[in-house]
UniProtKB/TrEMBL annotation:
Pfam families: Ion_trans_2 (PF07885), Pentapeptide (PF00805). PANTHER family: BTB_POZ DOMAIN-CONTAINING PROTEIN KCTD9. Residues 302-375 form the Potassium channel domain. Gene3D superfamilies: 1.10.287.70, E3 ubiquitin-protein ligase SopA. This is Voltage-gated potassium channel. GO terms for biological process: monoatomic ion transmembrane transport. Keywords: Ion channel, Ion transport, Membrane, Transmembrane, Transmembrane helix, Transport. It comes from Thermococcus indicus. The chain crosses the membrane at residues 295-315, 349-371.
Amino acid sequence: MRCVHGYRHNPIKECPREAEEDSAFCPFHEPVGGKDFERADLSGEDLEEAYLSGANLRKANLEGSNLRYSDLSDADLSHANLSWAHLEGSDLSGADLSHASLGSSRLDGADLSGAKLIHADLSLASLENATLASADLRGAELYGANLNGANLFSADFRGAKLYGVSLTGAKNLRYARFDEIVVEEVIGDRLVRQGKYSEALESYNRAIDVYLLLKKLFAEQGIYEAASRYSIGEWRVRGKIQRLAHEALENAHVEAFLPLTARFRKRWLAFLEGKLRWLANRFLWYTSSYGESPWRVFLTTVGVILAYAALYSHLGAVEGAESFAENLYFSVVTFTTVGYGDYVPKPRYHLLAVSEAFLGAFMMAFFVVVLSRKVIR
């Protein structure tokens, strides 16, 4: 006797399997939990609307199978092969998919609330409009995955590889957990220690893409504090690339990462440019946290004024200035380019005063730019 399962989403469809003895349903549609299919080869099988709640599917081969609208809640799918499987609209809430292979699978609209996807491979998988509330995706591979419109409430992405992932329109992003230092940067650091500079540069480039993605997403949702963190991460990695540029000069396939001079095969010139760019990167970090902290600019400004005042006082560079307070006054007037004229530098210290005036004009403009970015956002 044929299985009498009636398909909710396709009423004219009939189950092709025979019913089990003493049952009106086949093994997959029988409404009994806890079924055991460990290591079963179910590749390419039509298991649409299967009832597999609490089932043991450890290490099962479900490659290319049709599991649309199936109930896989609380099922054990750890180490299972679900590559190219169709799981649209399926209930995978509470399921254990740790180390499972879900590459190129279709999980659009699936419910993965509370599912364990630790170190799962979701590369090129489609999870559009899926529910990932409280899902554990630590260490998951999400290269090229489509999570557009997915509900990410309390989802844990720490340690996940996010290069190439799409999160357009993702919901509850502010409640999801992401690494402050993305795993691609961590991998790059490890490769540097191993002396694998070209691989490190490629990993750093992926890290920049991830930081840019997260910065954009959080900024679009008005979560500017998180966006600032990822902006800092982006610039930090750029600094690492600039510092490493000369190390990878002989690797032609990484030229896109290198300073322009590196392409002329002049190692010393590439080294010099890389170091100068790195110094500029460090300057931006220490003075403004890569343009994200007006307070750092302000504190840097105060520090510069005090440093020049101390230098003037030590050198006796200002006519008529006897005390530190008078030298400090002259430093403030010079830094702000007010120039009242009541105190003037001695002739041989004119260039010193001019250098402070130039630096002051730059720092004040820099402060306005950084402050404007924060206020406008």
